[in-house]
Amino acid sequence: MDHIKDVLSAVLNGILDSLRGFVLIFTLDRQIELQRSLKQERRSKIVRRSQMNSLETVKEKQEEPRILHRTLQCSLLNGGVFCLSIFAFNGIVLPLIEALLTFSFSFGGQLNAAQWVWSWTAPILSATFSALWILPLFVLSKFVNCFWFQDIADAAYKYSRGRPQLLPSISKMIADMLFSMVIQALFLVQAMIMGLLPIALFNGLLSMLHLCLLYSLYSFEYRWFNEGWELPKRLTHIENHWPYFCGFGLPLALLTSMPSSTLVSGCVFSVLFPFFIISGNEAQPATRARNYPLRLFSPVVALANTIFNRTIGRNSVQSS
Questions:
Q1: Structural domains counted in the chain
Q2: Mean pLDDT of the chain
Q3: Inside any domain, residue 93
Q4: 215 part of a folded domain
Q5: I need a labelling partner for 30 at 20 to 30 A (CA). Which of 130, 162, 269, 282 fits?
């Protein structure tokens, strides 16, 4: 009974911590500016800086990205441009063209002909819109979001924890990032497979659990990477304390599962994810309920190791 209470308490703490970013993001820039000004005052009392150094400091301060500004940019690009363009095309442009087509054929009493023309016109218009607008904008937004998400995470981390403690070598950092991307992709596929199991209700809950843990990994990975945590340590920490991270990822998993369109779901994720980056950076994960680790990442880790050993490992042996 006590273990169940610990699990429920950890889930609740995770949910509450995940929502903190929606409040902190409006005050974090002000606190960062205050912290920076206090540091500059201390430095000025110890060392007299030259005019050139002062100008360089001002220039550096102006070039540093602001967290709220980056978040608004993400919301404008993903929600204001990408998502609204999809709604506008499907909700306004297509119905308007269909109405004009039906109206033009109605004078000759050829409504069946109008329906036949629209049956092949609508797919052509949708495919053209997707190829010329949705696909390029989707690729652009994903590329830009990578940099903006990193700016938000780095600024928040420097404020609360100081200088990042990265992995010791560049090659190790690149290998860790590549392996992490493979693990995340395979784990997403595993979540989709869980949702296809022929077990009513259980398959949905199991798939949702996978998404919650995956979104928690997304949110905390920036912080743990800056702290020098390697991927095995990150995954083990989530598996050992899965109730907290299940609660942390639950709000984002529920919000992204509401839209029926995968593209719209991706837009919702991109708009909300900066807030969860802030939440993950400022959270203090509950570590009490860990008596029963949930090894959900173990199958994809084993599969990824097999893939890398049979491709990269084999190529390395042949080249040597």
A1: 1
A2: 83
A3: no
A4: yes
A5: 269
